[in-house]
Amino acid sequence: MNKNLIFIFFNFCIMEPEVESIQHMVTHMSSTMIYNSLEVEMPILVKYCPYTGSYEDMMIKAQKENNTEVYEALIQYKNDMIEREKKLEHLSRILIECPQKAN
Known about the structure:
The chain is mainly alpha-helical.
């Protein structure tokens, strides 16, 4: 099977439930409820991180000191925030297309 075809199929399978869930959320929830449901809680290891600087700086310091627990927590939190941002952008597009559904 063509690699591009596999990639397209994989993306379709992954994205379809997310699209349905966000459209479902817009239909059945207020905007405030939706935004609150997309909040990402900051892990304690990130909140009280022993390192300072940007996320990249903190990850580099954690990696240099072999502090894998903090390193993984920083990566997971950053990934969660990126995913949240994607969902918020998608939500914004839906709300712009269907403003009558926004509460």
